[in-house]
Amino acid sequence: MAHINLLPWREAALKARQKEYFTLLVAVALVTFALVLAINFYFQTRIDGQNSKNQYLKNEIAQLDVQIAEIETLNEKKAALQKRIGVVDQLQRSRNVGTQVLDEIAKIIPNGIYIIELEKQGNTLLLTGKSESNNHLANMIRAVELSDLFVDATPESITADDGSAKLLSSFKMKVKIKGLVDNVSEGGKL
């Protein structure tokens, strides 16, 4: 005889499949949740690491900015000191200019030339005087050009004095002093 199962086997099989399905669904959900957490943890760790590197770089940049500001301050102080040293050096070189100028003038003026006035304006001397002849004046210009202290002798005017008994001519001449700077040396009469 045929065996008939009167138990609700289809409902039991359906419940078993549903139980297996929900178990599998929960397992997949747990694995997916764990995977999402792992990926999130991995990327959060990377972001935190990058943020710490960025913060380290910001701190180092701030320190370098402070050092750059100190270097700029030191460069400004160095430039100021170099300027002072240059002024002191210029003053040192032009310390005895008055004496040197008068000594050199005495050497280069030939007989027959008489200096009436010497005026120093910066690194230029303005010579005013009288000459017995133009040859004496030309000799003086040549002596100025050969001088170690003077350069660029430029006669401004030569005029004959008709009222003088010796027939002297008046002259004005500009002579530059080597190695002087206009803003360091002061103008005035020697």
From TrEMBL:
It comes from the Bacteria. InterPro entries: Extracell_DNA_Util/SecSys_Comp (IPR052534), PilN (IPR007813). Residues 54-84 form a coiled coil. GO terms for biological process: type IV pilus assembly; type IV pilus-dependent motility. The keyword Coiled coil applies. The chain crosses the membrane at residues 21-43. Keywords: Coiled coil, Membrane, Transmembrane, Transmembrane helix. PANTHER family: DNA UTILIZATION PROTEIN HOFN, TYPE IV PILUS INNER MEMBRANE COMPONENT PILN. This is Pilus assembly protein PilN. It comes from Colwellia ponticola.
